[in-house]
Amino acid sequence: MAEEVLGAQEALALVLADVRRYLGWHRDVAGDELQGGIEAVSPLLGASPMPNVEVTVAGASAAPAVVGWAEVEEASGDGGGGHEAGPARRAEARGRLEVRGATDAAPSAEARSPIAPGDPPLLDEVRRELGVCKRCKLCSGRRNIVFGVGNPKARLVFVGEGPGAEEDTQGIPFVGAAGQLLTKMIQAMGFSRDEVYICNVVKCRPPGNRNPESDEIEACQPFLEAQLRAIRPEVIVALGKFAAQTLLKTQTPITRLRGQWREYLGITLMPTFHPAYLLRNPAEKKAAWADLQAVMARFGKAPARE
Asked: Concatenated DSSP letters for 155-206?
């Protein structure tokens, strides 16, 4: 029974620490909030006494990350370390969670990165790290975060610019008119939408479908990179100016980038026109189709015969 309680306690500790991280609670108030949370759910874990647990977090209080937990003994008196004992930290030690926060100093560049370099993440880890994102001003007008959709082990990934109205409503990328055209393009290449992965440079809709601004792109860029590192596709198709310029870190116009093989994170990349641009400029569909045929050749696919 003790092992079952301990296992449940571990899971609860991590969940509560995740809640703390995503809500951005400061460490000086987190202890009492977590105490209240665990007391509320402790009846679910049975009548046996629950161990004291210390949850250790790393990083600034704005975005800490759980790095471990340990069963601890109740300290006598008011305790040391400069912490004043509050009602939730006194004699009622049962199920106590103590959050040991990090310093308020600015985190290092590595700490600010959603996933450590050289450590390919899972897509759900990237999405969890993104959380209820408020890293740029786009959060104020969005209805849904549009993270991405498709096969998490896709060989082919399409990266677009940002969500439109339909995408913002549904929380799925490329479901509007441009998305319908993209689906036809994918099918013409011999794939289905379920086989590939589709995402955008920015995860929230810019107001009025305006172009993403530099600070918005910068805020989302680490998560886009983490998505692509998680999937590790064979080929990326960058759809339009913002996707190509963001991934390639260049200001070269898409008219000069398209149709030429590039590389991103060691992954082969093909820039081409955005489907929305093709809807406005149907004459450019021939050029875009030539780009996609080059991608098809990489996968040993030939265009379907009429």
From this structure: SEEEEES---HHHHHHT-SS-SHHHHHHHHHHHHTT--TTTSEEEESSSSPP
Nearest C-alpha neighbor of 149 from the set 125, 133, 170: 170
Q: State which of 62-76, 86-100, 247-261 shows the largest mean pLDDT.
A: 247-261
Q: Quick one: 122 and 229 in the same domain?
A: yes
Looking at the structure, do residues 220 and 277 belong to the same domain, yes or no? yes
Q: Do residue 13 and residue 120 come from a single domain?
A: no
Higher pLDDT, 276 or 47: 276
Confidence bin at 216 (pLDDT 50/70/90): very high
Whether 118 and 78 map to the same domain: the answer is no
Q: Which two tokens stand for residue 285?
A: 């569909």
Q: Total domain count for the chain?
A: 2
Segment of 70-74, 90-94, 150-154 carrying the highest mean pLDDT: 150-154
The whole-model pTM stands at 0.64
Q: Quick check: is 303 in a domain?
A: no
User: Residue 121 is part of which domain span?
Assistant: 113-298
Question: CA torsion sign, 116 to 151 to 200 to 250?
Answer: positive
Residues 219, 240: Cα–Cα separation, whole Å: 19
